Amino acid sequence: GDSVTQMEGPVTLSEEAFLTINCTYTATGYPSLFWYVQYPGEGLQLLLKATKADDKGSNKGFEATYRKETTSFHLEKGSVQVSDSAVYFCALSDPSGGYQKVTFGTGTKLQVIP
Amino acid sequence: KAGVTQTPRYLIKTRGQQVTLSCSPISGHRSVSWYQQTPGQGLQFLFEYFSETQRNKGNFPGRFSGRQFSNSRSEMNVSTLELGDSALYLCASSLVAAGELFFGEGSRLTVL
User: Fold this and answer.
1) Percentages helix, strand, coil for chain B, rounded to the nearest 5?
2) Which one of A31, A43, A106, B1 is most buried, by most CB atoms within 10 A?
3) Is B48 on the interface with A (CB under 8 A)?
């Protein structure tokens, strides 16, 4: 079945540091890939997405590129801020079944210190 | 546009009781999914409803059930509660299959 593997956290960075959170996936079809973010006490919200190979999703300074050859979708940001402290989830959705089922990674907690 | 609304936000139950959680999706969204989030297991898919039909179900015991009404609002029910059912239950709606999920803030259930 489908699965998503992302790096263990927590990740602690100083403000303005470069961020990379690794994510790899296994899927039988041609999935769409997502990064969701969860701030403390809130539900998840979509950060960015990519629907086909070589697509780059970007939002709020975060970027991720859909790499089919390496089955990866790593999240990057050039300069993190304290306000980026949250839990980040990599996810995939395979549309071939015609229904909605998103498979999430375990989440990576990011803490940014001033 | 109103977001996904979940009620209640917090609740405390004792073992053996049952609980019903409610979710109102974004207007126009016909797909509603439910997830259980725990520190140990992360986000686990419970089930998905579309136009009052359960289209997909995760690997949870039969104590977990759900339904969707004609106005797309959804409820999930957990019967005979166990301590391990303590979790944040998240509801999400989407416009199309494999599309973006819009999450509510969740219902935090504590079982004593």
Assistant:
1) 5, 55, 45
2) A31
3) yes
